[in-house]
Design goal:
The protein has 354 residues and is α+β, with helices and mostly antiparallel strands. It has a single domain, classed as L-amino peptidase D-ALA esterase/amidase (4-Layer Sandwich). It is built from seven helices and 14 strands. The strands form four sheets. It has a six-stranded mixed beta sheet with strand order 4-3-12-11-10-9. Strands 1-2-5-6 form a four-stranded mixed beta sheet. A hairpin with a 2-residue loop joins strand 7 and strand 8. The protein is globular, with a radius of gyration of 19 Å. It starts with 30 loop residues before the first strand and ends in a 6-residue tail after the last helix.
């Protein structure tokens, strides 16, 4: 069986309908770009950069409300003190490996200066997970040009998943992990919106993995040489709803529910860091006067919470299903066996499967 997304296997997560692409790019104006770097000389390299670009790139001058949550803080996401202070996101979001955060951040600042977006200052958001098992991370293989390439590659439409971009060398629940995405259609009184999630999954123990509540990890044999990562996961949540910063923070907190459903517990060594942004308001910079803002009532947020949990859970499983076996710096990490996954879920839930 070739690699496939979860729904291509006949398996669905939750009750809410996905968007047309079942991806974060279902949120209007959200683009995703990858730069994947794989080579064996002069040092073994299995890494890359992923960019999430709101507002089709206009985010530099048309800010979005945003909120942050740390489920476990053994990780890095730059720019967060100002987001917590101001509630505003003013840059694309970079995701990469632990040792490349600085160079990707500096590349985003350089991009802003080069394109004359530097009207005041820039504190871009760049997050990381550790890929040092498959990637010789101490070789520092990524460059500013790699970050620029990921930004230039940002597009709408279907999103490549698995061994791509920042997820190239990542592992999840003892199998190959990486980038995954999913979305949900949300209807509330007065409007219909989309919630999308993109994850860089690099966390978890094998026996904790669950697929729609089924203990798949326990039923699959660990096998000799199984490698289990110590952490982490980055989750980016986007919506086109008119949410304010405090509501975005509440949305980011609900990524924890989706992670828990898939089997993530937030171990001491995990950097489980979540960021949510909402494009339903426009906060243009430099400011020319008071802003006119819209805000959904807090009572409407339950549907967004549910959609976030479902989208995050499915995004993690899409990362696992799409990722392929990879051999790298210290060994080989196998892809999760899809036929066995479908068989196990089918036994627990007879209606499952193609």
């Amino acid at each position: 069986m070739g690699r496939a997304r979860l729904r291509d296997l006949g398996l669905t997560i939750g009750l809410m309908p996905p968007g047309p692409l079942n991806a974060i790019t279902d949120v209007p104006g959200v683009l995703v770009g990858h730069r994947t770097v794989i080579r064996d000389a002069p040092r073994v390299t299995r890494t890359g950069v992923t960019m999430v670009v709101p507002r089709e790139g206009a985010i530099w001058t048309d800010y979005a409300f945003a909120g942050y949550h740390s489920f476990n803080g053994n990780g890095e996401m730059t720019g967060i003190p100002w987001i917590e202070e101001s509630g505003l996101l003013g840059s694309p979001i970079g995701i990469t490996n632990t040792y490349a955060v600085g160079i990707v951040r500096d590349a985003l600042v350089g991009y802003a200066v080069e394109h004359r977006y530097s009207h005041r200052f820039h504190l871009p958001v760049v997050a990381e997970t550790f890929d040092g098992y498959l990637n010789d991370i101490e070789a520092f293989p990524l460059t500013r040009e790699d970050a620029f390439a990921a930004l230039a590659a940002a597009r709408g439409g279907p999103v490549d998943e698995g061994n791509v971009g920042g997820g190239t060398g990542m592992r999840c629940h003892g199998w190959k992990g990486g980038i995954g995405t999913s979305s949900r259609h949300v209807e509330v009184p007065g409007g219909a919106y989309t919630v999308g999630a993109l994850v860089q999954a690099n966390y978890g123990r094998r026996h904790h993995l669950r697929v729609d509540g089924v203990p798949v990890g326990r039923e699959l044999e660990a096998g000799a040489g199984a490698v289990e990562p110590r952490g982490s996961i980055i989750v980016i949540i986007a919506t086109d709803a008119p949410l304010l910063a405090v509501q975005c923070r509440r949305l980011a907190q609900r990524a924890t529910a989706g992670l828990a459903r898939a089997g993530g517990l937030g171990f001491n060594s995990s950097g489980d860091l979540f960021l949510a942004f909402a494009t339903g308001n426009h906060v243009r910079e430099p400011a020319e006067g008071p802003y006119t803002l819209h805000m959904l009532p807090h009572a409407y947020l339950d549907a967004f919470f549910e959609g976030t949990a479902e989208a995050v859970e499915e995004a993690i499983l899409n990362a696992l299903c799409a990722a392929e076996t990879m051999t790298g710096y210290q060994g080989t990490v196998e892809a999760i066996p899809l036929e066995s996954l479908v068989e196990i879920v089918g036994r627990h839930r007879p209606s499952a499967g193609p």
